[in-house]
Amino acid sequence: MNGGVWHRWAALGLLLVSSAAWSAATPAEPALLPVPPAHPQDPWEHFNRRIFGFNDVVDRYAARPVAVTYQKVTPGFIRRSISRFYDNFKDLRSGVNDLLQGELGDAGKNFSRFGLNTTLGVGGLFDVATSAGVEKRPTDFGTTLAHWGVPQGPYIMLPLLGPSTPRDAAAIVPDGYFAFNSQVRHRRTYWSLWGVYMLNYRAELLDYEGVITGDRYAFIRDYYLRNRALMAGEHNVDDDFDFSSGVDSDDDDDW
């Protein structure tokens, strides 16, 4: 199949999925049903729920089935090694953002983690740094903007990318300079690395699906906003959104 035909079929498929998601996200409701009060950080909730519906359909019929298969056929120790490889670049990103925030101690820890895991950890496949007692201190450019007083802005749901805010959306490009594939010039390798990352990341989320209760949109929104506020030091709350409880860790095949 030539490139032009493939692109036309891909466009048609995306159009069909988008149409189905748009309809699924806006079910008919009785006219007298009371309207819940607007969330103070989600003034665009009606539009966000439509985007959430689109993302949910794409996930339900494309991403999730592939992730389930991947989780079943791939041993846990391999999945964790893949996660550690990608997380290693996040330590580098965190170190750079620590410098921008003036957090020199945390920057030293994150750069040390990146150095140890890249060398002794064989490119990050093994987490030597944690075994050596070097603590992970994650941060990103969105947190850097918050540190310098940039307001968060309203909650937004991005197509395919998921929950965000204007401040966090503005951080996507700067943080991308420290991504695992940022320096890869070979297009097939670039997208292969990205595809494996997204597949492995979606498979990790399978273990947390059972924690979500009630209105899925509201649960994910509230968890995201609380988590980002905590990272930015803007809010102190008890950990009532602990996703680790009740999740299998696959310790039986850990390396």
TrEMBL record:
Domain of life: Bacteria
Signal peptide: 1-23
Keywords: Lipoprotein, Signal
InterPro entries: MlaA
Entries under Pfam families matching the protein: MlaA (PF04333)
Family according to the record: Belongs to the MlaA family.
Protein known as: VacJ family lipoprotein
